[in-house]
Each structure stands twice: as structure tokens, then as C-alpha cells.
Amino acid sequence: MAEHIELNGTRTWYEARGEGEPVVLLHGGFSDSREFTGNLDALNEHFRVFRFDRRGHGRTADAPGPITHQRMTGDTIAFLEQVVRGPARLVGYSDGGFVALLVALHRPDLVRELVLISSAFAADGFMVQPDPDGEMPQEVIDNYGEVSPDGAEHFPVVFRKLTDPASPDPSRTAEELSGVECRTLVVAADDDLVHAEHTLALYRGLREAQLAVVPGASHAILVDQPELTTAVVTRFLTAAPRPTLIPIRRAQALAP
């Protein structure tokens, strides 16, 4: 079921499939919810899965004003309140994971569990950043033009908004990660665009986290290893946590 809803003044495309407890999928930057087709959309076998295109992405048109992480976080909170109507498990890929993390920090009451895939908590966690004066691959522009209500010719406008150096820095510190109250799965590719050291800092900064490194994958982990990535995420979301035989980090976390 695909519909539109008004979120903070933006007519937003979304889809809901499956039955059960809610899971919300958050796509990466310069992309849209289609990137979950053939991988994490299989979660609808276990959950009521929602996915929506953030402002200026996919089937959601651009709106007046900047596109900042603060606005995208606010839109996600509005989606949880207006569409899901309560807390959900958030699964975010790349920049979508960044947004999911910000939601968990700002509104912990709306996040039951968190999955961060090839994501970061600070801008410098990524090895490279889009150059505001550069260009994106034509494939990305064509992909945008296939579904955008604004047409492919509007992509440069969105690109400038998403790479505007004047936008507020959404980065968080490793110490701030302890503010995430829910159980979290950190997933990374073994050849990711996110620094391995940054991924470890993300994992270690979270109070109740698990870590999975997917072999034979790049930052395009959902394309490189769709079955394995989906299996790892599905197991985390469906299996009850249980103690390990030789806990080290977790033993320290549980110590009085």
C-alpha cells in the first residue's frame, strides 16, 4: 500500500506492507526507499514494514528551504507519530542510519530497537564526502529522475541543499552515544566507506550494542550481500537476546 502524507509541510511518499510490530526503513542519501527492494523488504514476513522517501528524495518532492539532518530527523519523528502512531524499530542505511541515530537520541520513547547499517555518528566517519562543487554519477541522477515529482533537472538543486557547507553539523561525539537507550545492531561491510575505527567507536559508544561485519561487501552492502545482510538484521530483530558464554564487554556493562 503506497500513499502520501503531509509531514512538516512536505507531501511525503510512503509504503506499508506486512503484519505485526512496526519496522521503519530509512534509506541513504541521494537515494530512496527502492534501495530496500530485494533485501530488507523481506522483513515484511515478520513485521509491519514502513518505508518512506525523505524530503527531496525519491517520490517525495523537494520543499522550500534547506534539507538538513535536523529537518529530516523532525520528519522521521512526525512519521512515527502520524503514520506508525507510536514507537517502532528503526533500520537505517548509510545517511538513513545517521537520521535514525538522531531520532533515538532526541526521542528515545519512539525507538524500540535500532539497526545502523554502514552508518556513522559524525561526518568525518565517512572516508569521503560529496563535494559541493562536484558532480554525482549520472546513474544517481538518472535514478532520481525516474521517480522524482520534480524531474531529473531538479537534481542539482537538491544536491546543493544536501551538500551546503552552511548547514548545521549533525555530528555527535562518542560520549553522546551513551544517550541511546535501546538495543542496537551495528552492521558494517568489511570494505566500507565508513572508517573501520569509526564503526568500532560507534559500537563501543552505545550502551547495548551488537556488531556484525559482513564479508565481501562494500558500502553498497545491500547490493553486494543482500541475503547475508538481511539474515543478520532479521535475526537481531526476531530473536530474543541471550547471554554469551564468555562475555567481556557485556560483562563490564552489567557490572554494578
Can you put this structure into words, describing what you see?
This protein has helices at residues 69-84, 95-106, 138-147, 155-162, 196-205, 221-224, 226-238, 249-254; strands at 2-7, 10-17, 22-26, 48-52, 88-93, 111-117, 183-189, 209-214. It has 256 residues and is an alpha/beta fold. A hairpin with a 2-residue loop joins strand 1 (2-7) and strand 2 (10-17). The chain starts with a strand and ends with a helix. The relative contact order is 0.14. The mean pLDDT is 96.
Describe the secondary-structure layout.
Elements (H helix, E strand, L loop, with lengths): L1 E6 L2 E8 L4 E5 L21 E5 L16 H16 L3 E6 L1 H12 L4 E7 L20 H10 L7 H8 L20 E7 L6 H10 L3 E6 L6 H4 L1 H13 L10 H6 L2
Parallel strand pairs: 3-4, 3-5, 5-6, 6-7, 7-8
Antiparallel strand pairs: 1-2, 2-4
Q: What keyword list fits this structure?
A:
single chain; alpha/beta; Rossmann fold; eight-stranded mixed β-sheet; 8 helices; 20% strand
In CATH terms, what is the architecture?
Answer: 3-Layer(aba) Sandwich
**What percent of the residues sit in helical stretches (DSSP H or I)?**
25-40%
* Average of pLDDT: 96
Structural class per helix/strand content?
alpha/beta
Report the biggest beta sheet as strand number plus sense, adding barrel if it closes. 8 strands, mixed
Helix-strand string? EEEEHEHEHHEHEHHH
Percentage beta strand: 15-25%
Instruction: Please identify the oligomeric state.
Output: single chain
Shape type: globular
Write down the Rg: 18 Å
Full CATH superfamily name: Alpha/Beta hydrolase fold, catalytic domain
